[in-house]
Structures are given as C-alpha cells and as structure tokens.
Amino acid sequence: MRHTLLLLAALLGLVAAPLTAGDGDEGPSRIVAVGDLHGDYDAWEEIARAAGLVDEGGHWKGGTTTLVQLGDITDRGPDSLRIIRQLQALQEEAAEAGGAVVVLLGNHEAMNVLGDLRYVHPGEYEAFEDRRSEGRREATWKANREKLLAYYRQDDPELSVREAKAKWIAETPLGLLAHRRAWSPGGELGSWASALPAVVRIGATLFAHGGLSEERTREPIDALNARYRYALGADPLTDRAILEDPLGPIWYRGNVMRQPAPVEAADEEAGGDDTPRLGRVEELALVLSRYGARQLVVAHTPSMTGIVAELGGRLIRIDTGISSYYGGPASYLEIGDDTLRAYRRTPDGEWVEQDLEVTAS
User: Residue 358: its pLDDT value, please?
Assistant: First the structure.
C-alpha cells in the first residue's frame, strides 16, 4: 500500500501562521516543553491541563508561559489534526495574554509532506472525511484511470478494470485524498509545516526535535531553519533531500547515542578522510558554544521511564512515549529562571514532579 500512497502523492500534485517565539537572551520566566504526541489528543489535553496551560474549555490560561511542542504531532494515533487545530488557536490566545506557543518541525510532519504515509493512523484519514469524499475519490479514479490501471497491472497484466478499481477503492479510504491535498507541499498543512522551525533558542535553551550535530550547526539558526522552510516549499522542483538527512535536527539521534555518520555525509563534511566524529560530550559542548546556549532539549528518541537529564544537565530528553501507541507516561518539562523540573503521570493517574540534576558548569 505504501507504493500506492506515494503514487497518489505524485498524482495529486490556505496557510497557517508559524508557531514561533523570540530568542531573547533572558527568555520567558516559565517554559513548558512537551515531546512527541503522535495523534493522542487525550494525552495532550491531560498534559496541557496539568501544566496549567488550558482551562476546561481548552482555551489558553497559561498567561506569559511559553509552550514549546517539539514536533511529531502526527502519525501513530488518530487525532493529529485535532491537536494541530488546538495549537493553532492557542497560538493566538497565548499571544494576546503575553505568552507564546512554539511548535517545532518533527520528522513525521516532514514525512507527511513528502508523502511517506507508512505510519498514518486510519483515524487521520477519517478526520478529513466530508460529504464530498466519495465523489472526490470517484473523480480522482476517472481522471487518473489509465495511470492507475498501468500501476496495478505491473503485478498482474490480466487484471480487469473492475478489479483494478476495487483495489484502488480498498487502498484509498475516504478522507485520504483530502489528507494528501492538505499535507502536500503548498497545501494547507504542508504550508503550516513549512513555517515551523527546526531549531529554536529561547533564553539559554536550545530546542530541536531530534538533535543537533556538529556537522549541521556550522551556520546560524536562522539559516538552518531557512533550509527546511525552502525544502518544504510548494515548488515541485525543490530539492527535498534535507528532510531525510540523518544528521539534520529532525532526525539526528547522536546527542543521545553514538552512531557512525552516514558514509556520504562523513565524506562530504570531512573531505573524504577517516576523521572520527566527536563524542557526545564534546559535540554537545561545541554546539552549545556555537549558539550561546546552556542546554539542549530534544525529543524523538524515547525515554520510556520519564524525562531525563544527561551530560551534566546539558541534554534533556523529553520524548517519553506519551502516545497510547507506545504506552509511556504523559509528561512535560518546566524550565524556570533557576529551575529544571520534570513532571510525569503515574499509572494511577497522579502527577509527580522531579527536579532534574544539573552538574555542568
């Protein structure tokens, strides 16, 4: 089915405001950071209420708090669209109250724009269903009938038109075409994703969905974000390779675990020699120094027991497998003027807090 969906993305060849905040040296007095949500609205709602960000009606009550959601809202669960819509509304409400809502680009948002739908939950398509869905699917079949027939007959040259159409219907749930239009480059959600930063610095804290490699932090944050904004643009001739870059901020896991650099990236960056990459400690120290930051907050690589601080508190990991797909604890990080505190929901529904140990100078 994956190949069919990629074909659809090619055949099917509205802009939300960017959710960003300023990078002032002082920063807000309270930052709440939330990791991967993967379509679990119930978990998100519980976190937002526990953190004092929203009221019973789902409206902003966080005052001057800055909320940072580190991407991967999409896939795995059914309610990505619902979460996105609320975050878009909260952005406006928070700004009116003197706060801010910042959403970072995650690799799963980029995958949706690229048409890689392997992890899309069926409920995501259902969220896009309307009274025109069936007619839209029928019209798309008619407009692309010959291409689709050729595609399905690659495996079975004797396949009849009726059989090919049955396959098409089975592999094209109602809502899928609207989902693809919305997420395609230049579509409503594709444009929204293109406006999301891959990296932000707020006060003394850096935030990135995956992590920050030495190789990809040799330029200012604005320039790095501009590369992702361009790669997610509407022009069909755009080079989108950066969206799958394993050393880029939406995919990188090297701050959490050491992995060999991809051969092509290592050759390009090191001039073709065998120069070893920096270790975790050295790399993070260099990245923080380049951007004048004290610590880096990442998601992407789960810590299923809760939020943890590593490398003397310079690296904070906040992906705790929040979505019911993973079954980890709901959690959020609170950064204050002189505090770094993790909150986690226990199996009995109670919220516990823990001051994270910071030993780095």
Answer: 81
